[in-house]
From TrEMBL:
This is DUF4149 domain-containing protein. Keywords: Membrane, Transmembrane, Transmembrane helix. The chain crosses the membrane at residues 6-27, 47-68, 74-94, 119-139. It comes from the Bacteria.
Length: 141
């Protein structure tokens, strides 16, 4: 395995692990912890997801750069690009809507549930599936 492919594998699987751990374990569990109110949970979530998205951006760039410097399978390129595209949509289209809603909740406003959360989770699922496909394609080379 070349250095570029090994770097891409590392980037893809670390990215996958972070998404699974934060989005599908930490996020839902924090609201079940004793003493965590909605405002506290939202405040924690904003910080955690800002950090996650920053780390994902770095890992995505590392994986894409590593793929560009090697001769990866087409499936790995398409899957990584799909995961990166899902992240971009989250950052540009979904996170701002979630931020506006959480700002309103933190300010004490009564706001209806948001479908933006469903969009964010759907994009997380797309990222997870894409990163699994990318990792398998790179390891199957």
């Amino acid at each position: 395995m070349s250095g570029g492919v090994a770097t891409a594998v590392a980037g893809v699987f670390v990215w996958l692990g972070m998404v699974l751990a934060i989005s599908f374990v930490e996020a839902p569990l924090k609201f079940r912890a004793p003493g965590v109110t909605l405002p506290i949970g939202l405040g924690i979530g904003r910080l955690v997801f800002r950090a996650l998205n920053a780390a994902e951006s770095v890992l995505g760039l590392v994986a894409i750069a590593a793929l560009a410097l090697s001769h990866p399978p087409v499936a790995a390129v398409v899957a990584t690009a799909t995961a990166a595209g899902a992240l971009v949509v989250q950052l540009i289209a979904v996170r701002p809507r979630l931020t506006r809603r959480s700002d309103a909740v933190l300010a004490g406003a009564e706001v209806p549930r948001s479908r933006a959360h469903h969009a964010y989770v759907g994009l997380e699922v797309i990222k997870v599936l894409s990163l699994v496909v990318a990792g398998i394609a790179l390891l199957s080379r």
